[in-house]
């Protein structure tokens, strides 16, 4: 009988975006990408795993629902972890034959462009690696679940190297700086919609690779230089440089969406208004204080330094009134600060609830094993919630 292993894993939000695969099965990207890992105490996936001789088949429960284990991505992750365990001789042959049970949940909406699959696969792969006592880097296995998941295997600031090997062995994530390097760096996630996205990232990327000239230009001429520059900005804690590159790269990623045929549009009018407001705020401030970035959905992720959070929250509250003001900002606590009159004029208050809520968080650590016994599986290896 094996013990139950439980792990929590973070979300990551890219500042240099991954968009386009060179191999769809191995999930190999066309370009390097860079992200910050966000604090698991605010947003995380949690996964429990165990392997038992009495289990008849592999089983998986996601957010309280039994799902099929026969998804190619899931199968690839489990197969590769077992292959590593066999190569490292970390567990015996019998153990490798036993079936596994997996139970996982997110504490935030799934498929809302909030990087839930990244946290989910990083969590699954880290938990399985602990179960099978795999010691080597597992970012390339998390990548087989969801490309961006490989970056959630590490905390702080992370680079995913596109690599050049056809087998993907050099398409791995490495840490640029740990979470303690730039402790002032925080994030505000403005949730503009929590319904499922229109075009999945897989389909959106495929159309872009097949049709977008801009994607070719971006990969060859823009991303390599931006990647080097943003890594330097992170190392030197140069916020204005970090922010400028982040915004330009988000804009270019969405321009690639528009350049795709048929176009893939993820930003909404609310997203564009957020982008306008941030540019005005930075202009009036006289320096770049806030960066926006948008993934494959309408939600904005704002990166900013802790000292600027109270003023920016006041600005967001002013422009985007909520019908539930007490619950509007969740996550970290921050001081209240009245909005300076010069910022009032940026934009008139909009109709209520265009932004549903805001998650205030910060850069955080990578996946962590939970040892307080709060497993999602019971002693029999079945979901506790059932
Ligand atoms: O890993 P996927 O398939 O969910 O793709 C993620 C794509 C973006 O979030 C838009 C960009 C990124 O680098 O995370």
From TrEMBL:
UniProt xrefs under Pfam families: MDD_C, MVD-like_N
Claim: Nucleotide-binding is one of the keywords in the record: yes
Swiss-Prot/TrEMBL keywords: ATP-binding, Cholesterol biosynthesis, Cholesterol metabolism, Lipid biosynthesis, Lipid metabolism, Lyase, Nucleotide-binding, Steroid biosynthesis, Steroid metabolism, Sterol biosynthesis, Sterol metabolism
Signal peptide coordinates: none
Reaction equations catalysed: (R)-5-diphosphomevalonate + ATP = isopentenyl diphosphate + ADP + phosphate + CO2
UniProt GO BP: cholesterol biosynthetic process; isopentenyl diphosphate biosynthetic process, mevalonate pathway
EC number of the protein: 4.1.1.33
GO annotations of cellular component type: cytosol
Domain Diphosphomevalonate decarboxylase-like N-terminal per the UniProt entry, residue ranges: 9-173
Record-linked InterPro entries: GHMP_kinase_C_sf, Mev_decarb, Mev_diP_decarb, MVD-like_N, Mvd1_C, Ribosomal_Su5_D2-typ_SF, Ribsml_uS5_D2-typ_fold_subgr
Pathway in which the depicted protein is active: Steroid biosynthesis; cholesterol biosynthesis
Gene Ontology molecular-function annotations: ATP binding; diphosphomevalonate decarboxylase activity
Residues in Mvd1 C-terminal domain copies: 187-368
Stretches that traverse the bilayer: none
Top-level EC class: lyase
Function as written in the Swiss-Prot or TrEMBL entry: Catalyzes the ATP dependent decarboxylation of (R)-5-diphosphomevalonate to form isopentenyl diphosphate (IPP). Functions in the mevalonate (MVA) pathway leading to isopentenyl diphosphate (IPP), a key precursor for the biosynthesis of isoprenoids and sterol synthesis.
Family (UniProt): Belongs to the diphosphomevalonate decarboxylase family.
Identification of the protein by name: Diphosphomevalonate decarboxylase
Species for this entry: Mythimna separata (Oriental armyworm)
